[in-house]
Amino acid sequence: MTTDKQFKRAARELAEREGISYTAARRRLADAPEAGVSAPLTTASAAAEDDQEPPRIYPTAGAPCPVDCDGTAHPNAVCWLWRPEDSKHVRHEVRRAAQLPNGRAGELCHRYEPPTPGYPNGSFFAREATWLLALVYAMLTDQRPELRPGRAELWAAVETDDQAAIDALMEPLDRAAARLLTKVPEQWWGEVKPRLDAYADFVDMDDRELRTWQEIDDRHHVGRLVDQWRRAWKERRGSEGYMERTGVLWSAPKGWLDDLLVEQHGGHGDGARVRLTDGRPAIVYAAEWSEAGAPVAYRIRELEPGRHGNIGKLVPSLTSDELVARDLVAGELDDQA
Ligand SMILES: [Zn+2]
User: What is the pLDDT of residue 326?
Assistant: First the structure.
């Protein structure tokens, strides 16, 4: 029996015994690899019935392997598949931007979560949504593997120590995430959240063969993200005595992705004040993306003269909420009212 099958069997047994989910059991075992994997929970005789060998421990190659490594250069050791964190001589933020799913999500939050007077590092609630973007990255690369940059290309890009090279490779994934995520409540509750719920169920049941320790590691991180997802929507009694959910500021990562893609392709970013071709002033709060290029449309709120403490300024109308094609935006307003 491979270590892998042993691991899965141990996880299944632990899950059954403790009445916890399979994913939770896997993670518990991964946290205690000695107890979990090397000492199988099955009895020796049960293992013998499957005429399996006990798991063997192989050392790993001493340095990241070339992408086309066939293993002959390091007999009796398993391949070390390069990951961004292995390129120690490049800047931390470059490695972070290349690391999926958590690193890149953190990097975009760091770049685009704007500081506000009360929150010099960006809104706490928005930063907290970083894990949601990571979960979206995990789902998209799982469901559409072609969105994940190839190891060789990513390695070469990281070695340049240049964020633009990483961003270019990640663009298909970022664009897919920007097209999926939204700031429109009906879309979030009606389409995006159900999709992520389904993915969370898939991850819990995921029984695909794990071939390398990196894959085990990756699966572990996705499991943690799914746990976070479940916690966010779980009802519990709050300090006021009412049932409540933590939730997550789900609109925040959409803004980061829009800003990133506008930086690369032009267009109007989050919060841009524009004039429409019919003369109305408006503020952009989200962009709609096609397969390539600049935004094809914008979600806007009309700007109207302030009537209360903000007389003489143009302020977003809270009741207006429109989708306008990019041709209907004449240009940016030069007022800073
Ligand atoms: Zn190798």
Answer: 94
Distance 89 CA to ligand 1 centre (A): 21
Task: Determine the distance separating the centroid of ligand 1 and the alpha carbon of 151, expressed in angstroms.
Answer: 14
What digits encode the pLDDT tens for the residues 71-96? Answer: 888 888 888 889 999 999 999 999 99
Specify the pTM.
0.80
Give the integer Cα–Cα distance in Å for 202 and 205: 5
266-332 maps to CATH 2.30.30: yes
Query: What's the 76 CA to ligand 1 centre distance in angstroms?
Result: 10
Note the pLDDT tens digit of each residue in 31-57: 654 443 444 444 444 444 455 666 667
- What's the gap in Å between 64 CA and the centre of ligand 1? 7
| Cα of 77 from ligand 1 centre, angstroms | 8
User: Residue 68 Cα, ligand 1 centroid: separation in angstroms?
Assistant: 8
Contact partners, residue 81, CB within 8 Å, separation at least 6:
64, 65, 151, 212, 214
Q: Are 111 and 126 in contact (CB under 8 A)?
A: no
Are 6 and 50 in contact by the 8 Å Cβ rule? The answer is: no
Domain residue ranges in the chain: 1-55, 91-235+246-265, 266-332
